[in-house]
Amino acid sequence: MMAASLLPGEVPVSLNEARGWLRLGPSLDDAVVAQLLRAATSICEAYIGQWLIVRTADEVLSLRGGAARPTARPVIAVEAVTLLAADDAQTALGAADYRLVREPGGAVRLVIAAPGDADRVSITYRAGLADGVNAVPEAIRQGIVRMTQHLHDARDGAAATPPAVIAALWQPWRMLSLGGVR
Fold first, then answer.
1. How far apart are CA 122 and CA 146, in angstroms?
2. Inter-residue long-range contacts of 155-163, CB under 8 Å, 24+ positions, other chains counted
3. pLDDT tens digits, one per residue of 127-157
4. Which of 65, 112, 119, 126 is nearest to 90 (CA)?
5. Alpha-carbon gap, residue 136 to 73, rounded angstroms
6. Residue 139 has what pLDDT?
7. Where on the phi/psi map is residue 31: left (φ > 0), alpha (ψ -120 to 50), or beta?
8. In 15-54, at which residue ranges do the beta strands (DSSP E only) sit?
9. Which domains does the chain have, with CATH numbers?
10. What is the CA radius of gyration of the chain?
């Protein structure tokens, strides 16, 4: 499960690009195509297990052995960490009070130096693969365009499997997790 972000991620494919791929001229279907682009982008992020464009995440995580694993990937910066105890006590931590340990597969573990009696941690961090729309790899963008086309073609309820080329385009960026741990 991915972390909740206050703002949805940007869509790395413009409405004009999608309309061109779908061979649609200026139309009244812009709202539908924009919705399909957002859905295709969300499907891509779920498939590759990473946020495409950097955005901020806020999570409250359980502490296990003084460590917690943020769910969004790839984490690029931690902005705030607060320990939360069972009695509702809160302790804001400075950068020297924790460290990020990068693990294989792009996951990170937030390790707290002295968690005390805290059983949870609130963390605000930034995560994402690219700094902006233009930095998203072209293969990912092409997969989003093709998924948008698939969703557009199947919008009337036609049961169809997405083309395999979409998975092939996204596969190099896919981060898998085993045993429920990212």
1. 38
2. 155/32, 155/36
3. 999 999 999 999 999 999 999 999 998 887 7
4. 119
5. 15
6. 97
7. alpha
8. none
9. 15-52+130-173 (1.10.3230), 55-127 (no CATH)
10. 19
